[in-house]
Each structure stands twice: as structure tokens, then as C-alpha cells.
Specification:
Blueprint: E1 4-6, E2 15-18, E3 21-24, E4 35-38, E5 42-47, E6 50-56, E7 64-65, H1 72-77, H2 86-94, H3 99-108
Parallel strand pairs: 3-7
Antiparallel strand pairs: 1-4, 2-3, 4-5, 5-6
Length: 120
């Protein structure tokens, strides 16, 4: 595969910054460095040889791309964490919040110990 290989560190919001753009990765990588292949029109994130995240390449500085599935691990630990999250709002707006996500959300239960997000 051709492209530029980078090793950014995953921040506490489960995002990496590549060329001043922000991309989500699975939450289990928070605090770790990941291997990234930056190609002309996409960005691939690897754990060893396995692709764990794939995003279209962003071109505007400070833009971000969040994938709801990357944050589901957090929802299991802290049910109220996602209520007002950017990933959730984006997924609902673009139609990627599926019935499977809704079932996962319902199974996680109501928020506990956190402030409810907008619309709750």
C-alpha cells in the first residue's frame, strides 16, 4: 500500500490528529500510539496488520470525522457519556445510527451519575 506512514498518539477523546485534522479511532487505543497510513483520499489506522479504522481523508484544517462505533466501548462503562456527544449527533444526522445501535443504546440503560445531554 502506498502512502505516508505516521504514528500519532490517541487523545483522551479517542481521536488522532493527522495534518491538523481529527479522526476517531476505537476507544481501546486511548493513550497509545497507532500506525496510520495516509493516502490520497483515505486514512487507515492499523493495529499490527489489521485495519481498525478507515476514514475518507479530510482536507480542511481542524475538521473532524467521528465514527459512532469507535465510542461504543465507552458507553458500556459510562452509560451517560454519549448523550450529547458529537459522534452520536453526527450518526443520527447522517443516518448511520441503525436499529442495532438503538438496541445497544437501550441495553446500556439510562444515564447514571452524569448530567443528561440535550433532548433527554
Amino acid at each position: 500500500m502506498r502512502g505516508i506512514t505516521l504514528t500519532p498518539k490517541v487523545d483522551r477523546s479517542s481521536r488522532i490528529t493527522v495534518r491538523q485534522c481529527h479522526y476517531s479511532v476505537p476507544a481501546r487505543f486511548i493513550g497509545q500510539k497507532v500506525r496510520v497510513l495516509l493516502r490520497g483520499n483515505e486514512l487507515l489506522v492499523f493495529e499490527r496488520r489489521e485495519v481498525v479504522a478507515r476514514h475518507p481523508r479530510l482536507t480542511r484544517r481542524f475538521d473532524f470525522r467521528d465514527e459512532l462505533d469507535h465510542y461504543l466501548e465507552i458507553l458500556l462503562i459510562k452509560p451517560g457519556a454519549m448523550a450529547g456527544s458529537t459522534a452520536l449527533v453526527t450518526a443520527r444526522r447522517n443516518g448511520s445510527f441503525t436499529e442495532v445501535h438503538e438496541a445497544f443504546w437501550a441495553a446500556a440503560g439510562p444515564p447514571t451519575g452524569t448530567r443528561p445531554g440535550p433532548g433527554r
